[in-house]
Amino acid sequence: MAVTRQSEEPLTIRHAFLLTACLVLICSVIGVGTGISATEDITYDGKWWLSANKGQREGFVDGYISCYVADVKGATKFEYTGQMYAPRLTNYLNTHSDEVEKSVEVLLWKMTTPLFAPPKRKHVGNGNPTSGKYGIDGEFWRESPEERLGIIQGFLFCYFKYENTAKGTFSKPASWYVEAISKWFGIDDSKESIDMRKINVQIPDVLFKFHDTK
Fold first, then answer.
1. pTM for this one?
2. Shared domain check, 57 and 15
3. How many structural domains does the chain have?
4. How far apart are CA 194 and CA 186, in angstroms?
5. Which range marks the domain in which residue 177 is found?
6. Is the domain of 131 the same as that of 181?
7. Do 166 and 124 share a domain, yes or no?
8. DSSP string, 9-78
9. Helix (H, G, I), strand (E, B) or coil at 46
């Protein structure tokens, strides 16, 4: 009997180790409790901002504003698009290195204050009053290949912070949604073409088509 116990003990320990490893793997794949892919645990702060390229920065602002203005209806007023705010935020961080650990959202809000904001204009909203609820549609997507990743990142950052999972969860990397949305719109970047029947559809409305299924 002593020999039997000695041969079974290592097997039990090995099974426990394998079970623990499996649980860790499963949790990392589904992103337990977050609704955000575990492979994209990104902190959107000033450091991230300075590491992103110009198009991604502008896209992030456009995606964030479309969610914040249309769905959240937040108190901060945005009169322009990422094309105007992003360079201002970049210049600010380049001269205020002590603020690189602040949230991009907080820094972006600062760019709307009188000291840093562009001149006021009559229209107050998401920067494009003629392009639907969110201000970013299929034509915007077609014309902005460099901004697409940032658009999804900015929109989902806002969505997860303020709306949680009200319209579904999104556990895949942002790049996956970029590809899925482009396919849905029938985008051909080599020809700069789009399915004309979908050109006016709002980008967030397409994004919501790809939320996680239960």
1. 0.79
2. no
3. 2
4. 5
5. 37-210
6. yes
7. yes
8. HHHHHHHHHHHHHHHHHHHHHHTTTTSS-GGG----BHHHHHHS-HHHHHHHHHHHHHHIIIII--SS--
9. helix
